[in-house]
Design a protein that fits this description.
Blueprint: E1 22-26, E2 38-43, H1 52-59, H2 63-69, E3 80-84, E4 93-98, H3 107-121, E5 128-132, H4 139-152, E6 170-174, H5 178-199, H6 207-221, E7 224-228, H7 230-235, H8 239-245, E8 253-260, E9 271-281, H9 290-293, H10 301-315, E10 321-331, E11 343-345, E12 351-353, H11 361-373, E13 380-384, H12 388-394, E14 399-403, H13 406-419, E15 423-425, E16 443-444, H14 453-462, E17 470-474, E18 480-481, E19 491-492, H15 497-504, E20 535-538, E21 545-551, E22 554-560, E23 573-577, E24 580-585
The structure holds ligand BES, manganese (II) ion and zinc ion.
Zinc ion (ZN) binds next to strand 9.
């Protein structure tokens, strides 16, 4: 029985969500002719050049050239110069966004420059903002710019009555192909999804509520989902994950997602995405000092990145067969907490001696990796805010890569380079294995002392991948920005979502997507995760397939719509009840869009 209709509870509530947040292409509109609150144009160092900036310079009787000559505008990377009420344009203001040296321009710069301009403009409500893509930009560069603009207008406002950033009512991209814009919007939504989950307070985002969020996202994007509760985890002998969870009043969960893209055949997934989902890391009995604990809501950033990447790939209908598995626990000090000296038998049978309960991520991942190994994926990549040592080695902005398969690691590094997410590989010499030997068990959960701590952690994980090509990404530094940057307000960054999508999207971008994904989108939920059983309906008279799922007394009908001229290459979703369409949402973040 449906009791009441409401929008899916994203981020705890739908309060403060915009009425519509469209991002669309207007390839034919000239910059000087566009009506908008603001027009954003990109400028490289060394003058107005020959692109869109030159056209705007001409329309404004040489205004840009004069400002450049006077040194008021330099085009330096992430410079952002607003010019109010410019004559010759129909836009209320012109924002000149610097992209640095012309010959160094790449997709990562496009992301940051667009995010910087959007962040600046989103300081006030704007109903319509136009961005101009440069004529020479590749589809990749356009996508990253669109994604950047989508993330720049979102800050850390989840809990603020008065928001510091407002999403633009609509964003239009001039000079950009509609399919590239549509893909960029989905990508931006993916990054924003991961950021929102990281930014949620740990008392709001705990293992069950993370699993709920994942179920909603899976429902919208047509992924299958399984949620393992503690009984199921016990039946699956996930004793390592359960040990970490014992100190908390919040029971653990393991979420398994599966997406089979068009052309993906056979039972073997092409790739498994594994994420560390410690929704809060107090350190357990090896308690963290207060200052180190403050940001430990970010310790589920690996899980958020994997959920968001999988959802984005599903929304893009990428031709890949993937599974994503995230281990969700809270590391606390309750009376049943796991102890130093405990010896735990992981799901794989390997015994682990606990030397430090704050080295919990690897203990959780031991079981998640073993679950995934059982699904026989061709490759595994995991993302985890695993060690402070990785930040000592590489700083705040760079992720560490660790692998048992150089080709797989190189592919990840190449994708990361393409989208401008910095990563650096660290060695996995066999000598490091000695450091995790235990006197009483097969291995212990820390190395000898703190030296090489990021590597000994990776060495620990390696024991659980069963020889499958695997790369571990330690995102402890870049997952969370303690301070704002020109392109972000700080907090969760969504790091790795763009790299993973780039890695697994296949040849998309050279051609338009064809078939809609997953013939029958739906949700399978195990172990009484739903207040009501999932149901399947057929929308009366409609051509689209409807699946509905419920949670907490909520039933939603979801209609996968074919791409429309206004949203080409995109799948929108109708939230319907009793066959009546109520609202249009986009699939990844569930934001309303105009029908
Ligand atoms: N979640 C932390 C790592 C971390 C630190 C993430 C800073 C983000 C920012 C992890 O669980 C941890 O506590 N690691 C310990 C391991 C040590 C006890 C061997 C660390 O890095 O100190
Ligand atoms: Mn820890
Ligand atoms: Zn941790």
């Amino acid at each position: 029985m449906v009791t009441e209709f409401s929008i899916p509870p994203l981020g705890g509530s739908s309060a403060g969500r915009p009425d519509a947040a469209d991002i669309v292409a207007e390839p034919g509109t000239a910059p000087e002719a566009v009506t908008a609150d603001a027009l954003v144009v990109f400028l490289a160092e060394g003058g107005v050049g020959s692109g869109a900036a030159a056209a705007i310079d001409a329309a404004t009787s040489g205004l840009l050239g004069r400002l450049a000559a006077a040194g008021e505008i330099t085009g330096k990377r992430c410079e952002c110069v607003p010019i109010l009420a410019p004559g010759g344009l129909r836009a209320g203001q012109l924002v000149v966004a610097g992209i640095g040296k012309r010959e160094e321009f790449d997709a990562g710069t496009a992301y940051k420059a667009a995010a910087t301009a959007a962040r600046h403009l989103a300081g006030r409500p704007r109903s319509r903002v136009a961005f101009v893509a440069e004529p020479g930009w590749t589809p990749r560069q356009i996508e990253q710019a669109v994604a950047g603009a989508a993330t720049g207008m979102v800050g850390q406002d989840l809990y603020r009555a008065e928001k510091k950033r407002s999403r633009f009512g609509s964003t239009v991209w001039l000079g950009a192909a509609p399919d590239a814009v549509a893909r960029g919007r989905l990508l931006g939504d993916g990054v924003n999804l991961a950021r929102r989950l990281v930014n949620m307070a740990p008392d709001d985002l705990y293992p069950q509520s993370f699993a709920d969020e994942a179920a909603v996202v899976a429902g919208r994007t047509g992924m299958q989902i399984e949620i393992w509760d503690e009984d199921h985890l016990a039946r699956e002998r996930c004793r390592a994950l359960l040990a970490v969870a014992r100190g908390s009043s919040r029971p653990p969960r393991l979420v398994l997602l599966r997406y089979r893209g068009p052309g993906a055949s056979g039972d073997r997934p092409d790739v498994a995405l594994v994420g560390k989902g410690v929704t809060f890391d107090s350190g357990g009995l090896s308690l963290k000092p207060s200052e180190s604990m403050l940001t430990m809501k970010c310790d589920m950033a690996g899980a958020a990145a994997m959920l968001a990447a999988a959802a984005t790939l599903a929304a893009l209908a990428a031709p890949v067969h993937l599974v994503a598995a995230v281990g969700l626990v809270e590391n606390m000090t309750g009376p049943a907490a796991y102890k130093l000296g405990d010896v735990i038998t992981a799901r794989s049978g390997t015994t682990i001696e606990i030397h430090n309960t704050d080295a919990e991520g690897r203990v959780v991942l031991a079981d998640v990796l073993d679950v995934v190994r059982g699904l026989a994926p061709r490759r595994i990549v995991d993302a985890a805010t695993l060690t402070g040592a990785c930040m000592v080695a590489l700083g705040h902005d760079v992720a560490g890569l660790f692998t048992n398969d150089q080709g797989w690691c190189d592919a990840i590094a190449a994708a990361a380079r393409t989208v401008g997410e910095p990563v650096w590989q660290l060695p996995m010499y066999p000598d490091y294995d000695d450091q995790i030997k235990s006197e009483v068990a097969d291995i212990k959960n820390v190395g000898d002392g703190r030296w090489g701590g990021a590597i000994t952690a990776a060495k620990f994980l390696e024991r659980f991948v069963g020889g499958i090509p695997w790369t571990h990404v330690d995102i402890a530094g870049p997952a969370f920005a303690e301070k704002p940057r020109p392109w972000t307000d700080g907090g969760g960054t969504g790091f790795l979502v763009r790299s993973l999508v780039e890695l697994l999207r296949g040849q998309q971008g050279s051609r338009q997507r064809s078939a809609p994904p997953n013939g029958a989108p739906g949700v399978t939920v195990m172990a009484s995760q739903l207040a009501r059983p999932a149901a399947v309906n057929q929308r009366r008279g409609g051509p689209a397939k409807v699946s509905s799922f419920g949670r907490g007394g909520l039933h939603l009908g979801i209609v996968r719509r074919p791409p429309s001229p206004r949203h080409p290459g995109d799948s929108r979703w109708d939230l319907s009840r009793g066959g009546r369409v109520r609202a249009f949402f986009n699939p990844v973040e569930g934001l309303p869009v105009a029908p």
